[in-house]
Known about the structure:
Elements: H1 8-24, H2 31-47, H3 54-78, H4 93-96, H5 101-119, H6 124-146, H7 150-159, H8 161-170, H9 175-198, H10 200-206, H11 211-215, H12 219-240, H13 245-264, H14 270-278, H15 281-298
Amino acid sequence: MRPMRPPLHQAEPLLRTMQAYSRLMRLDRPVGIWLLLWPTLWGLWVAGQGTPDARVFTVLVLGVLVMRSAGCVINDWADRAIDPHVARTAGRPLATGEVSPQEALVLFTALGLAAIALVLLLNPLTWLLAAAAAVLTIIYPFCKRWIAFPQLVLGAAFAWSIPMAWAAQTGGVPRIAWLWFICVVIWAVIYDTMYAMADRADDQKIGVRSTAILFGSADLFIISLMQVTLLLGLFLAGRESGLGTWYLLGLLAGAVLLVRQRWLIRERRPDACLRAFLESHYFGAVVFAGILLDHALVS
């Protein structure tokens, strides 16, 4: 005899719970996955000179999925009293009560254990770097209460995939890896400042800090300056890494995308700032395309 399936009405609560957990991990909004994945691939391809180790590639890509999900969970747990008062975040599962704080911590722990299992497949230096990445992931959500530039901490958390990729691929972290790291930090501050510009009015009311508030009326000028610095840094990083014409073409395409994002936020409208943020991952994609093609077609 075939086992009987539970009645549909009995399965619905479980399905709703799983959907709420999925939304808590932002699996329905994958932009954050892309923003973490592209720097990881930059580091892997440059460190591996175009042929990264297949096992390292698999572990780090899975790690991106797990750690981004864990970061979203702990962020919403930390902001559970704030999110109901911000229009953009009022519908998040912890803010609405669909998921309890205790459930969120259990989910975060499970994701953390999954991340540990993955990193144990790599070398000891990567273990140490992963521990630092975990610290950055946990402290970032609280930084918006302590410091005026929490985006810098977020940038370090997202850029940490660069030294991790180098360590996993080569067993070391050379100076050039830290130049790539700095570039990713700058990039993250740019796109997360645009993201924070969408919430600036709400954040000011409830006392949450951000670079959008810190920069004030100089925000557009500072973002433009950071965009130029980012392109210059990536140009230098690419030159020192032996990348050539195809990489420069990728940077040129990236420059066009940065100009578009700057144009979108010109009037500081929240919807346009959010759209600029959502398009940010295309920049990471074209830079990676340049790295990939340079190694594939020139090497």
